[in-house]
């Protein structure tokens, strides 16, 4: 992920409100009935990008499934296309236990990704990393939320893609 991808987290964060965090769901087996099996590993494939939104999203995937997904790397806005190319389900309607992909057209930079914990009507509760003010080129686009998870409730925005996590 290029450092300027964090600019997107700042844009998303400005419209978000804090909500209570909830415990992760129990792990489930990859390749469950009705899901495409995708390559997995036992370490975060985004080594070197600890603290950014993509690294945090991979950590949430591991917390909820027991593994990381090798198909999801690089810039946040590329994740929906990467997932589709790997045979994963990508939809336009918010889904619980998915990855929300906010494109650069929505939030600037190279997009933003977050774990969708819950969906309630037109709002989603997300768990994300590297959200908040303070990103500059000089500090590697690290926000005040760099390397910190937070949970927020936001409006489901048209144009957001959701990667259904098996």
Notes on the structure:
This protein has four helices and nine strands, in the order αββαβαββαββββ. By secondary structure, the chain is α+β, with helices and mostly antiparallel strands. It has a single domain (3-19, 39-164), classed as endopeptidase domain like (from Nostoc punctiforme) (endopeptidase fold (from Nostoc punctiforme)). 19% of the residues lie in helices and 24% in strands. The model is unreliable at 1-37 (pLDDT under 50). It is globular, with a radius of gyration of 14 Å.
Characteristic terms for this protein:
166 residues; alpha+beta; two-stranded antiparallel ribbon; endopeptidase fold (from Nostoc punctiforme)
> How many alpha or pi helices?
4
Spell the H/E element sequence. HEEHEHEEHEEEE
Low-confidence stretches: 1-37
> What is the number of independent domains?
1
Highest-level CATH class: Alpha Beta
CATH architecture: Alpha-Beta Complex
* CATH-assigned homologous superfamily: endopeptidase domain like (from Nostoc punctiforme)
Mean pLDDT: 76
- Helical proportion? 10-25%
Oligomer: single chain
The portion of residues forming beta strands comes to 15-25%
| Secondary structure: number of strands | 9
Widest beta sheet: strand line-up: 1-8-7-6-5-9-4
Which structural class do the helices and strands define? alpha+beta
Instruction: Using the coordinates shown, work out and report the CATH topology.
Output: endopeptidase fold (from Nostoc punctiforme)
Question: How would a crystallographer describe the biggest sheet?
Answer: 7 strands, antiparallel
Give the end-to-end Cα distance, rounded to a whole number of Å. Answer: 24 Å
**Which word captures the global form?**
globular
Evaluate the radius of gyration.
14 Å
């Amino acid at each position: 992920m290029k450092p300027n991808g964090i600019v997107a987290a700042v844009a998303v964060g400005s419209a978000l409100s804090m909500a209570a965090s909830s415990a992760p769901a129990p792990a489930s087996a990859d390749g469950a009935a009705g899901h495409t099996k995708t390559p997995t590993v036992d370490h975060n494939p985004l080594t070197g990008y600890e603290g950014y939104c993509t690294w945090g999203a991979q950590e949430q995937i591991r917390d909820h499934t027991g593994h990381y997904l090798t198909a999801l790397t690089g810039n946040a806005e590329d994740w929906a296309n990467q997932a589709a190319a790997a045979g994963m389900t990508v939809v336009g309607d918010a889904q619980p236990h998915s990855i929300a992909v906010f494109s650069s057209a929505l939030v600037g930079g190279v997009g933003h990704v977050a774990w969708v914990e819950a969906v309630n009507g037109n709002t989603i509760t997300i768990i994300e990393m590297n959200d908040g003010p303070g990103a500059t080129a000089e500090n590697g686009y690290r926000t005040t939320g760099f390397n910190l998870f937070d949970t927020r409730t936001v409006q489901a925005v048209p144009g957001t893609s959701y990667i259904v996590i098996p």
